[in-house]
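(Protein data)
===
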Amino acid sequence: MSTLLFVATVTPVLYLLYSLLERWQHAQNARKWNCQPIAFYPGDILGVNTLKEALRHDKDRELPMVTRRRIDAMSAQQNRYTTTFQFRQLGTDVIVSCEPKNVQAVLATQFKDFELGAARRNAMHWLLGRGIFTADGEHWSRSRALLRPQFTRDQISDLDLEERHVQQAMKGMPVDSTGWTPATDIQTIFFRLTMDTATEFLFGESVESQAAALSNGAIPQDNFPAQFDRGQWYAAQRARFEKLYWIVDNKESRHIESAVHAYVDRFVAAALSADPEKKPAHYVFLHGLAEATQDPVELRSQLLNILLAGRDTTASLLSWCILLLTRNPEYFTALRSTILSEFGSYTEPRDITFANLKSCRPLQNFLNEVLRLYPIVPGNRRTATRNTTLPTGGGPNGTDPVYVKQGTPVFYSTFVMHRRPDIWGSDADEFRPERWNERKVGWEYLPFNGGPRICIGQQFALTEAGYVLVRILQRFDRFEGVGPTAQGEIKMSVNLTLAPGDNVTVRMHEDA
């Protein structure tokens, strides 16, 4: 027998033996840890059907609903509410859960058993580099330690900077002789506002996208915001293709990523060469970061990671806020009355501070309810770093521990968890901010993640969103929805964050 023939004959046998031994070891571990099997979502052998489902829901602008509908299907199949199951997508078996105990285990109590994993890095590092949202292990710990000091209370409460950009945004909402604005795409204004604010806070220089939009061509439009948006779209598509992420790579994606990097590199180079004795007039995130590291690639990566969090999340939250206020005029009136009472009028504002925004209970209840119904990150996932378990979801009643093999992705749906009737009541899908008057929440409410990787910019986002809402409600006493967002089904757009699928368009009446 030739050597080649011997290898060809023996290799499959050895692989089979190895597979059987591995399966036996996993079975032994599962028995030792009292684990029971979980239900498997029906599909083809490769899991092409689940990718098609996700892409179809994405096209229909209802991607967060795909997990909810799968849970409904599994619940009907198992004859019980099924909060944890498994599905296959392009050859990768993924565990899905909307169970708070499991989410707590993944994010906190068993933190070292899980990491972001290669799938996150493969999807996002092309655009964002190696930053806090793509790193694991020691590099993540270093990123966290590097960034946390930049989010002190004094630095996130620079409301003078915010006011300058709010006033620019207000120019995009002119009123006529009747006191009404024309139909205004306020969602686009919010994305310009948060991009302008974030770039000034991070880089020390704003892209001034709102001023350019208002100039009728007199001020050239900066391409960076559009390029950053398109780069996120590519990152989201890569995530859906699992191990075949490299398919989502073409001339356009490479050009966009290079352009985004070059844009930020310009500010990094200027900061690294700046005279340390010449301090800017206000706090600049990049300058603070440059005192801790001189690595230009690390600086660029961390800036892009924080830009993603600081710009898109707040703009999306504000868009959802206005959409829900237009659909709930009675609540709009009540909230505006509170804001006028606590913060004064638009022309004579008073006491709009970080502390007062945070202590305004009706405003915080409103933001909590918006984030419950439309969490800005509707789902997330981690990958097991070792053979481990989840606390619950297995067995015939779904109450036994679940065995998780090393390398298995665990996806948790914040969107579904925030709308579970058994947790939030029969009105879980309804907008009811007063539910927050007495409610204290735990792991069933995670708009900003939890555990060691909880969002360090949480207060920055809530402060900015609260401030913008106060100023808008001080100025306008009535909202009218226009177009698809005014009534009917609400569409949802998901790249890396969740925003209204149809841009929020409103007419607003200025308080006399």
Observations:
- The chain has a mean pLDDT of 90.
- The domain at 129-374+454-511 is CATH 1.10.630.10 (Cytochrome p450).
- The first helix runs from residue 3 to 32.
